[in-house]
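Why does residue order matter? Because the sequence determines the fold. Keep that principle in mind as you read this record.
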Amino acid sequence: MTSTPPLQLKPFDATDVPFFANMAADPRVTKFVGDGSIWDQATLAEKTNNALRAAPLNEQGAARWFVALHDGQPVGVLVSTRREAGVEIGYWVPPEHWGQGIAGSMVDAGLETIPALYDSDNLIARVDPDNTASARVLTRRGFHVTGCENGLDRYTRKEPSSAAP
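Structure:
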């Protein structure tokens, strides 16, 4: 396995839509996203517009996306969305960067940013049970399976309270 590259996360902006669109059009990438289909133009527009609109972060459905850069080049997208149960995270990596530790590095960077951004230490992720690589990324970072929703395993990571028992 290649050593994990140092990554920089930057806020997703309109110039990043083509990079993301390439991933959303690749069946290898979308295999474990939603129903497993590539995204049509309407879905792509809806999702990216929501990410770009900068809704107040206490609003259900508010999203912030980040582009992971390695040596100034985009290598993945980390998404975060306010849900009733916490802040849901997800990550997209193009196939040419698979197996390089990109997803794990993005989650690590997100763990440093997302809880403070949303003022919530309760992070969740939903993963297809067949996506063992994604499950491994999460469990290595303290996420635990806490249930199943619509055929997806639900992972939760809650930061321990700093208060003494």
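The helical segments are 17-24, 27-30, 41-52, 102-118, 132-139.
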